[in-house]
Amino acid sequence: MQTIAVAAISARAMAEAAANDGFKVVALDLFGDADTRRAASRWLPIGTPGSLQIDAASTLAALRRLAEEGEGGDAVMGWIAGSGFEGEPGLLEQGAAVLPLIGTTPHAVRRVRDPASFFGFLRTRVMPYPQVLLEPPEDPTGWLMKDAHGCGGWHVRHAPWSVEEPLSSHHYFQREVPGRPMSATFIANGGDVHVLGFNEMTVRRFGARPFVFCGAVGPVPVPENMAMRVTEIARALAAEFELRGLCSIDFMRDDDAIGVLEVNPRPPASMSLYRRPAGAPGLMHAHLRACLHGELPAVPAHAHAQDVEGIEILFARRSIQLDTAVARQLAEWPGIRDIPCAGQRFDIDDPVCTLTASGTSANEVRARLGESRERLLQSLETSA
């Protein structure tokens, strides 16, 4: 049995996918949730939960530990970097020097998450995207300020009237546009892509943060011409930026028009929405084959029917300290993932867990997620 390591702010989805594909898994993340530990043979912390940021020193120490232990015979073949690493190309480089990185290279991550490089390519190829400025607009009305090294939408703000400190090269300003935020989940081999499907993303306001990622529903149908256009864009981006493995492209949909927002050059949260087609490799096997051998899944995209799946992150509405009874209640909640352990504390707006649901339509799934979210929040407020 081959051993792989998966690392992210939350590594549960990757750990479960790898375990389901028959790998022995070492999970590195911030939370150490009960189901993450259940899927993995070992868990190593790489940051504190409330920070929502990966700690570089802890990550490198964990990778060195795995590399050194592998010298004794139980070798980890490599590690897969997930959420939180898209803004850390330097850390990816250091980690890859310790243990092989299975995914998009650090150099490619740096290029695709550089606003000048990414949007410059889109502009040259006449691909649609909301207007972007690399300097603050004279009138910030209708503009958003973003950090290309951020994830989950926590970095998005309405553009301020004045910027007091010099901005880094990974900050930029983007025109706010109407429409529904969507994504396409795909597997890339550095030149071509296999699109697994399209997803509707759920975003909500949290204080001064207007577009925090809260979940996704998919696969959802889109017009054939839109599917072809997004696939063409993903293919061009994969070739230009040498994307490898599981990735996603975020875009805005306004009727039949689209506007590209960004590419996640690593396994996205939406991977949880996709089941293994009959006779096809699982997602982690497909990721490894694309990264190591340049192979894409042979099953045609959209060839298998499945229910619509949904995920929703539940955020604390007030401070919560989980005692044993409440932790047990959470563990028994229908469709729950990222199950926290007893003793964990959550401040307001901290992610507590993830809810899942399935159905025959996106609206049905969203309704089930909303009902489950409100019932669980009410339960936590009365018992925690």
Automatic annotation (TrEMBL):
GO molecular function, one term: metal ion binding
Source organism of this protein record: Variovorax paradoxus
Pfam families, per database record: ATP-grasp_3 (PF02655)
Signal peptide: none
Protein name: ATP-grasp domain-containing protein
Transmembrane recorded as keyword: no
Domain ATP-grasp: 219-292
Domain of life: Bacteria
PROSITE patterns according to UniProt: ATP_GRASP (PS50975)
Gene3D superfamilies: ATP-grasp fold, B domain
UniProtKB keywords: ATP-binding, Nucleotide-binding
The UniProt record lists the keyword ATP-binding: yes
